[in-house]
Design goal:
Number of strands: 7
Largest sheet: 7 strands, mixed
CATH topology: Rossmann fold
CATH architecture: 3-Layer(aba) Sandwich
CATH class: Alpha Beta
Structural class: alpha/beta
Strand order of the largest sheet: 3-2-1-4-5-7-6
Radius of gyration: 18 Å
Amino acid sequence: METIDLRHLPLAPGDRVLDLGCGEGRHAIAAWLQREAHCVGVDLCAADVTRARDKSLPFVPEFPATATRSIGFGVADGLRLPFADHSFDVVICSEVLEHIGPYRAVLDEIRRVLKPGGALAASVPRYWPERICWWLSDAYHANEGGHIRIFRSAELERDIESIGFRRYHRHGAHALHSPFWWLKCLLWERQERSHLVAAYHRLLVWDLMQRPWITRSLERLLNPVLGKSVVMYFRKAPAA
């Protein structure tokens, strides 16, 4: 399930992409397969990095490393990225910043490793759907590695633009997931036994795998207001 829409990123064959906080590698793998890029995914969680690497392996025989395409994963801290200045054409940071205390330091690291004129795609949970989740369940966010803040997207946009970026696109994502998470939060202690949660999960899996026009159309209609995530795309200022 991709939150970042690669169609809004200026990716050319051979470009270098960093998926910061890659989790199980969904965006790094998508950019590698769809856009013929050199992709690197990093995360603090070694288990997630291993799963991301394992998920990419079945595609390697069909998409071997070439002069314009490769993929790799590693453990790294977003506060101290192990890359030289101006190493990447694109940085993806999806559903990461809400987990990090000094998130502005992560933004500074992104600016450092991104080439002048490069693109940043950042997504965070939308304020009001996330606020409802927090209201319904403390356990949803109050756990190790959980969400420690709720962003107002306009404030995050100002933070990013204040360090030399300009937003060029914005959209919502995963509107059908907002009611699902509200339901999970409402029934948190018994969600594993809930037939209603299970039925909604089957709906989301069906939507993801089959992509029927009715749910795809409904989500596009609702994403601007109900999207679980808000996604913003920025350009770093070109070199003077």
